[in-house]
Amino acid sequence: MPEINLQKIISFFSENKKEIVKDILEGRGQLSAHWMLVTRDVDSTTSYVLRNIDEVVQEYSAGKIELTPRNSLKIGKITMQRKGGTPDPTSLQFKFSPLELFNRT
Hints:
By secondary structure, the chain is an alpha+beta fold. The protein is built from three helices and six strands, in the order ααββαββββ.
């Protein structure tokens, strides 16, 4: 892909980063999430963290927009990549580490 197109893509995601992250994590409409609950099991002990979705969006949208070495797009703390294993090359998947919310307790 030409460098000028990459810069346009990065610029678009930079300008709309918070709204994009909000759509990924919260969704829209009546079924949009207001909270995120994350649990973890360590040595037979379960702990959890419950965060307001606005705090979660703020946390995961922090950071810059960048292209990874494997040509995925980092949107703050979320990685966007083409979904593999499907015949449809237009599907995307978004990856993030929910356990990072434990670092903010």
